[in-house]
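Record 1 of the preview.
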Amino acid sequence: MKWKLVIAVLLIGLMVACDESGDNPGENQSSALSNYFSIEGAELVSAKLPEASVSTTAPVIQSVSGNNSVINGGTNRISIESNSEYSKVIVGVKELTSGYYEFTPELKSTYVAAFVLQMSTELPQESFVLVFALVNASGEVSQYREINVALVESQVGALQVSCSWDLLNDIDLHVVNPEGVEVYYGNTGYDYGFDYVELVNHYLGLNFEAGTSYDDIYTSLTEAQIDELDNLTPSQVNQFRLDSTPGGNLDVDSNADCDIDHINNENIIYPTKADMVAGEYIVRVDFYSDCVGSGQTNYTVLARYNGALIQPSSSTNPYDGIFNAGEQDYGGSGSGVEVMRFTITEDQLKSASTEKICAFEFNNKSNIATNTINRINKMKNR
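->
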């Protein structure tokens, strides 16, 4: 029961109040499918998915792999293997009656297709089904294969950097701002204890000292006081968080110290322009722990500012990378492979909206507390 209050407060504190009058990247999209994801270089076809061919010469998909968990504004790297040649790939959403993407992937070989879905910053459903087919030079369509996808609670923000990967390993995302402040699992940006004590003192008129433990606070509160905290609005708690911890925040931390959660995504946000400074940002990805002990880990990093892809000064965005088995380093501050750099200018910060981009309002409360505990355990085990 002692985590009841912690979970409730963390849930409220991590949610972002949406300004309905603000810019919403999904409002101007002409197709329902583009409200789910986009694919670089793909043609969006406004028609029903084509029927699979019954011909014995049609392509056959042997396997399709991708992440079963996605976050708003993140990525999902898909790999399709076939036993025959193909010329194009078809991707759609099973729940939609019309609309699909058709394209020839850049990472194409005779029997393999690999490509990245760039997920919308405001996905319309908590879960959906991705469907895939291959088309050969004669126009014959393979049988469709599916991947069930679930939305993980996450936030976007004025600046969002996300990383997704395929194997069940502990991969860590690091972002360093122009002042050298590094956000990663060892500096999540959320000073939970301090924020919580300040919040309790303010709303309940108490005088707990900074750093007082959750257990000590919990045992001192009445049921009525606990209920009062549970009923705080997202905007009330979020304002405390922003005031006390400006800067970047590790919003999603997955598979921490090989405590496998199957999310395979990490997400770092800078909620508003007030949390940012102008200058060069550095993004690194670290292979913290090889939990599965074999295989090649493919990962993709994507950076957005005000919902739009950032043009990096080095490397590419999105960025695709690989870690080989056994390359883990259990790294902390300063660790990892640099994957991109980009610059946010003073003019961009001046013109940026002061409001956060709306994020999906999530329902899974337990994962937030679990992620917090995992971060603490990883720091203890270093």
